[in-house]
Write a structure and sequence with these properties.
Blueprint lengths: L9 H4 L12 H8 L2 H15 L2 H5 L6 H8 L2 H10 L3 H18 L5 H8 L2 H13 L3 H9 L1 H34 L1
Helix pairs in contact: 3-9, 6-7, 7-8, 7-9, 7-11
Length: 180
């Protein structure tokens, strides 16, 4: 049998103490956690949610700040789709991100207030960490909600487009009324 460092072979590492097979994920987990992309994901989460950059950006009128701040969530989507290779996780992250955009775009400063309390990036990071750590609760919950996330994604995308259209119409109507 081929020996690895430390004198154990692969077959011994792939079985737990009770004899059941398990995924040898500790090396992969460490590799993922030490990657630049993972550190960038953590930095985005820190700045956007802990330091409230997402909330401050949401103060930019017309939904522009919300869409720009959501652009930073691309790092979460990329990590889940291409590093973790999980479609259900990617759907859940997109769901959280679109929900954050939608809530932040609500008019009359309601969305601006919500933006400071709705921590989508923090939730996305918790999902990513759950997948890296093979947290059965997180993995099961995301897999269970995959179909629901797809339906919500479509609904939120439509709602965001309608909200943008409404904001453009409102701005145009108010601008015409005020400046004519």
């Amino acid at each position: 049998m081929p020996q690895q460092e430390g004198g154990t072979d692969r077959s011994e590492q792939q079985h737990s103490a009770d004899g059941n097979k398990r995924r040898p994920s500790s090396d992969r987990s460490e590799k993922l956690r030490s990657s630049r992309l993972y550190r960038a994901t953590q930095a985005v989460t820190l700045w956007m949610d802990r330091y409230n950059v997402d909330g401050v950006a949401g103060l930019v009128p017309g939904g522009v700040g919300d869409i720009v701040s959501a652009g930073f969530a691309v790092v979460h989507v990329y990590f889940s789709a291409f590093r973790l290779r999980s479609i259900p996780l990617t759907l859940a992250i997109l769901n959280n991100t679109l929900r954050d955009i939608f809530l932040g775009m609500l008019p009359f400063f309601v969305g601006d207030v919500i933006d400071f309390f709705h921590k989508a990036n923090k939730r996305n990071m918790a999902l990513i960490d759950g997948f890296i750590n093979d947290d059965e609760i997180v993995v099961h919950e995301v897999n269970r909600k995959a179909t629901q996330s797809a339906a919500i994604l479509i609904s939120l995308a439509i709602a965001i487009m309608l909200l943008l259209w409404g904001l453009v119409w409102l701005t145009k109507t108010l601008g015409t009324a005020l400046f004519s």
